[in-house]
Amino acid sequence: MLAQFRSKSVFKLSVSRSARRFLTVLQISFLISFSLAAQENSPNPILVEPIRGNVNTNFQEFGPALSPDAKTLYFYSKRSNGSYTEIFKSQLEKDGTWGFPEEVDELNSEFDDQSPFLSRDGKTMLLSSNRDGSVEVELSPGKVGVSRDLYISTWNGKQWSKPEALPSSINTEEIEENPHLLGDQLLFTRYPFGKPNLARIYSSKRTGNAWSKPIPLPAPINDAHATIAAAWNDEGTILFFASNRPGGFGGFDLYMMKHENGKFSDLENLGEGINSESDEAYMVYQQVKKTFVFCRRVEGRSFDIFTASVPKKENIIEETLVEKKKISLDNVYFERASAKLKNESHIPLDSIVDYLHENPKVRMKIIGHTDLTGTFEDNMVLSKDRAKSVKEYLVAKGVDRNRLETDGKGPTEPMINKTDEESSRKNRRTEFVLIQN
């Protein structure tokens, strides 16, 4: 639906002063690095470039989605001389380039199949299609069109199930596309048939198999201009979307807003480098790999897929696991007397996720430890619950739960046999131990 844009090729990221200030305060490791790398003379600048390998062509590549281990890329394209778009996938090669894409037959139909979205556990696929069974639209007397509707598919361990249409509370005579699902909240783009300039982002909540009536997201996300392709970060604390509102760098730009306690604040353009004189849209944030994937149309051709990434740094957690076969982390934080993880715990846990994705045959035991305050019985229960909570976080990021065991030692194995705050902080830790087969 985007049109008329020009391009650039490879960038070191620079952002506006206001965007830099905003990025700096975000409690997400990549976005912190994203902001810091924009400073002058940074030794590790953010790199913005077309994805490497065999994905981008003279045809359109649009709507990217990444698997939890970031080794499979889904997107849609109209290739050869075909009349309709299809969903493709490409595998990451050992040299870091993307292999030749292949069609995903079980997801595709004889008509347009677009906008693949992959859940962060890798088990649910959403897409947009005007295949047989989609809602028909009366365009004028005697003329009927078929709208694009949203469909859902699940992974059975070997292939994707046949996509099934979402209910009529979601799918209408209007166009529905660009789905994004986090937890029970579905975001998608909707606009009247043939009028993409009226595109707005809608939200619906799932309860069991039922979906609530979609409502448009509030201003200033939706405004008088086209707003499309919304996507959350993993915590739901940052919303990314594309808009052609005035004040950008040209055409559609990528924007973000903070989200806290159900309210949005601090609208920011992602800045020059990510945005350019051409149009950018459809961004995915891969938190574990600290990579943005987004789309830009290149001059003289159609859309290509780009990345914005932080150069890989030394991974102390991975090195320790390789050398000692275990690691103890005291920076995995929980709410007080609770097994609920705090957001700042996601940074070290994502390093564990990364290690497990890169070593798919490894099994691991997660062991919770508490400090010496409180009752023995409560601490034993709490340590077990916290280990289970960490396991569920790793599973939600695509780690097979059968590779993970949990245990809780409560206060029985303190690092320091004291109850002052510093000693208690070190005793409250989570241990990760490789299981030898």
Please provide a written account of the structure.
- Helices cover 15% and strands 35% of the residues.
- Helix 1 packs antiparallel against helix 2 (29-36).
- With 437 residues, the protein is an alpha+beta fold.
- The chain starts with 10 loop residues before the first strand and ends with a strand.
- The longest helix has 21 residues, at 376-396.
- The protein has 2 domains: 11-309, TolB, C-terminal domain (Neuraminidase, 6 Propeller), CATH 2.120.10.30; 316-435, 60s Ribosomal Protein L30, Chain: A (2-Layer Sandwich).
Domain count: the total is: 2
Low-confidence sequence ranges: 3-43
Query: Based on DSSP secondary structure assignment, what is the total number of beta strands?
Result: 28
Kindly provide the name of the CATH class of the largest domain.
Mainly Beta
Q: Based on helices, strands and strand pairing, what is the structural class?
A: alpha+beta
Q: Specify the CATH architecture of the largest domain.
A: 6 Propeller
Gyration radius (Cα, Å) is: 23 Å
User: How much of the sequence is in beta strands?
Assistant: 35-45%
User: Helix amount, in percent?
Assistant: 10-25%
Q: Output the CATH homologous superfamily of the largest domain.
A: TolB, C-terminal domain
* C-alpha termini separation: 52 Å
Mean pLDDT rating = 87
Largest sheet: 5 strands, antiparallel
Q: Work out the helix count.
A: 6
Shape: elongated
CATH topology of the largest domain: Neuraminidase
Q: Walk across the major sheet and give the strand order.
A: 1-2-24-23-22
